[in-house]
Amino acid sequence: MQNEAPVQEGDEVSVIIEAVGAKGDGIAKVKGFVLFVAGTKAGETVTVRITKVLKNVGFAQVVKRDAKKEKQEQYQKQAEPEPEPEPEEHYEDSETFGDE
């Protein structure tokens, strides 16, 4: 039986990491074919080189991270507001003590 995978060893493809597997590898798909990519996290867009192709899955390594996507993530982290400290209650001393 011929290898019916849409990728071959040595191919470079751009993928979006859809999830992270139980062993910590990122999971991406190329035309429904599952690729495991070490050192990635869900939501990342990366260019990978296919290192091994099996019957139902493949393995790949990152050759380039999408700088635009990383900058967006950094911007989002910066844009997230820091939790504001509880406001201190401020009382003015009027010294009138109700005497008017």
What does this structure look like?
This protein is mainly β. It has a domain of 57 residues: Beta Barrel (OB fold (Dihydrolipoamide Acetyltransferase, E2P)), CATH 2.40.50.140. The protein is 13% helix and 35% strand. The chain contains one helix and six strands; from the N terminus they run ββββββα. It has a six-stranded mixed β-sheet. A hairpin with a 5-residue loop joins β2 and β3. The longest helix has 13 residues.
Rg calc? 26 Å
- Would you report the number of β strands? 6
Q: Estimate the helix proportion, in percent.
A: 10-25%
CATH class of the domain at 12-68: Mainly Beta
For the largest beta-sheet, the strand count, sense and barrel status come to: 6 strands, mixed
Reported CATH architecture of the domain at 12-68: Beta Barrel
Strand order of the largest sheet: 1-5-6-4-3-2
Question: Can you lay out the helices and strands and say which pair or pack?
Answer:
Layout: E1 12-16, E2 19-20, E3 26-30, E4 33-37, E5 45-53, E6 57-65, H1 67-79
Parallel strand pairs: 4-6
Antiparallel strand pairs: 1-5, 2-3, 3-4, 5-6
